[in-house]
Design brief:
Gyrase A, domain 2, 605 residues, 18 helices
Length: 605
């Protein structure tokens, strides 16, 4: 696509978790998967924001009437997360980290920082709102396609982690709730899908330059805002993979272009008012499993006519994603039904051609008209068709503003309406903060660190990059200084490549290795208690809890010679490779492979 001609505009929001303590209490920022110690059950209601209005997105969530269950831990979660105690003082370390980033991006830091409440009633916050503070505005970032303005840097608390969901309730876990989160929002200055990816990478590199940020999967995520000329800003949530960003932008631009094309084709059409018809009698003998099961459970089959929509519902907007998909998503989210049937895909799913004709006749459909069916309990089914009708009316408008979820294939799904400013109001339990910028020290940027590692430690560019991005970067510098006789490249490889091999090849968890474990391993190397070529075995034993230094105690040269002579005498006609194999097996961990090979060569001559 010609993105300049399309008028593509894109902005991103980066959310980065921070290490240490939570934002408004002293609980640790650890994520847990073990059995929770307690549960809390709640209902959450939408309330008016500072402007006196209830936000449209909050209203939609409230209308679902769900019950929320929260799972917590007595030793790592507290009353603040449970919303049974006011927030404590804002975490000063998290504030410092956010101010460091603000200075790196040359922003204008707020002279007074006010914590606000942002209404969120999907259950992800026990209080019904998320605490957030505007730290800075008006920064900039240079990309290969021009400058991208940084509109804001916020410091906020992360949401609770969802565990399960049904139509009636959602279960969340409190371990993630309250983890400090830096949010960086750009202006819509991005004009190419690849530039979106580049911008996210650059911001990610800057964040990794700061000591206080978390590393690893799930600690950073991107939301993408996309629009084209004549379209509307669409916010895409949960883009986890940087590699997927260009595809997300491309497919959203395509979706908006297709919707605008359909709008043009349907110019002058007016969708008739909502008129729901019960067609259960027509389908009482249907062979469709969903239809028969619904009727057996005293549900109803209800339908609406969409005048002028014949052929429109099957129009593809994204690969495998049609107008009918958008109608179905709206019905699923707003009413909790399993899905819809529509005339552009029938007869199918056990619904016959005769039944289709009878439904069309009951709804008084003409050749250009379509219809949509929903099978469920009557009130839920009627609510679903109301949502379908609402989305059909929006087709004539073009692109409705909404929040969508990033799917693994680069397509998106409807989540909720685009929220507005009506959901914000001041947090009165946290005092105003006046930042002290003179105390903020800028860290070494990641690009600078990579270059330094190449020059100072003679690392290759790949190893320097791998090491600089690792969460073991501080440990590496400590070990390189503490053990100057050990090559820095070997230390770096042990902390990165070797650890990765353990995870991939041996399916063991390297997270079980502590910094002290690595300190001990390199101390043993320095003292010649182990050899470099068996460090992998030592680390594996440490993970398994079977490490015993005696097992790896080095033998003296005389003892090694005695063992090798015995092997040669026992196997007088064996070729060198066979002798070497036996020797390595018997002397595993007692000497390096090179040393054994050299000594064996001397003895077999």
């Amino acid at each position: 696509m010609d993105y300049k001609a399309l008028g593509l505009k894109c902005g991103i929001e980066i959310h980065q978790q921070l290490e240490g303590k939570k934002l408004f209490c002293a609980c640790p920022t650890v994520i847990r998967d073990d059995q929770p110690h307690f549960t809390i059950q709640r209902k959450i209601r939408a309330s008016a924001g500072e402007a006196g209005r209830v936000d449209i997105a909050a209203e939609q969530e409230h209308a679902k009437g769900k019950t929320f269950i929260y799972e917590g831990y007595t030793d790592t979660t507290c009353l603040v997360e449970a919303d049974c105690e006011p927030p404590h003082e804002l975490n000063p370390d998290a504030l410092y980290t956010s101010l460091q980033l603000s200075k790196i991006l040359t922003t204008e830091v707020s002279s007074v920082i006010q914590v606000m409440r942002k209404i969120v009633v999907d259950g992800s916050n026990t209080s019904g709102f998320q605490r957030t503070a505007l730290i800075a505005r008006n920064g900039k970032l240079t990309t290969s396609n021009g400058e991208v303005r940084i509109e804001n840097i916020n410091l906020e608390e992360d949401a609770a982690k969802i565990v399960s969901e049904s139509n009636e309730e959602k279960t969340y876990r409190l371990d993630r709730l309250g983890i400090p989160l830096i949010e960086i929002g750009t202006a819509p200055d991005i004009t190419l899908p690849k530039q979106c990816q580049e911008t996210a990478k650059k911001i990610g590199m800057l964040l990794r330059s700061i000591a206080g940020v978390k590393r690893g999967l799930g600690t950073i995520r991107q939301d993408v805002n996309v629009s084209i000329a004549g379209g509307t800003r669409i916010e895409i949530k949960g883009a986890q993979d940087l590699r997927q960003l260009p595809l997300l932008v491309e497919l959203e631009a395509k979706r908006q272009l297709e919707l605008l094309t359909i709008k043009k084709e349907l110019a002058g059409l007016k969708v008739l008012g909502l008129n729901i018809i019960d067609v259960s009698a027509i389908l009482k003998n249907s062979s469709s499993k969903i239809i028969s099961s619904t009727l057996k459970n005293k549900g109803k089959i209800v339908a609406i006519k969409l005048n002028g929509f014949a052929g429109v519902i099957r129009r593809e907007l994204q690969p495998g994603h049609r107008v009918g998909t958008e109608l179905s998503e709206r019905a699923k989210i707003k009413a909790g039904v399993g899905g819809i049937f529509h005339s552009d895909e029938l007869p199918a799913y056990g619904i016959t051609e005769t039944e289709v004709k009878n439904i069309a006749a009951a709804l008084k459909c003409g050749a250009k008209d379509a219809f949509v069916l929903v099978a469920d309990q009557e009130m839920k089914a009627r609510h679903a068709l109301s949502a379908v009708h609402e989305r059909a009316v929006e087709v004539l408008v073009g692109v409705p503003g909404e929040v969508r979820k990033a799917n693994a294939d680069g397509t998106t799904s409807y989540l909720r309406p685009m929220p507005g400013s009506a959901r914000m109001y001041p947090e009165t339990d946290v005092p105003l903060i006046i930042p002290e910028l003179s105390a903020i020290r800028l860290p070494e940027l990641l690009e600078e660190k990579i270059q330094r590692y190449q020059h100072q430690f003679s690392l290759s560019v790949d190893l320097a990059t791998f090491m600089a991005k690792s969460d073991k970067v501080l440990l590496f510098e400590e070990l390189a200084e503490r053990f100057p006789s050990i090559k820095p490249a070997f230390i770096a490889e042990t902390l990165t490549s070797t650890v990765l091999d353990i995870k991939r090849q041996y399916q063991l968890d390297p997270e079980k290795l502590t910094d002290d474990d690595f300190r001990h391993v390199f101390q043993y190397l320095l003292e010649n208690k182990i050899h470099k070529d068996i460090v992998l075995d030592v680390l594996i034993d440490l993970i398994r809890g079977t490490f015993d230094l005696k097992k790896y105690a080095s033998l003296g040269t005389e003892q090694i010679h005695a063992t090798l002579k015995k092997i040669i005498a026992t196997n007088p006609h064996a070729p060198f490779p066979a002798l070497m194999g036996i020797a390595m097996k018997q002397l595993a961990g007692k000497a390096s492979g090179k040393f054994i090979s050299d000594e064996l060569k001397k003895l077999v001559k």
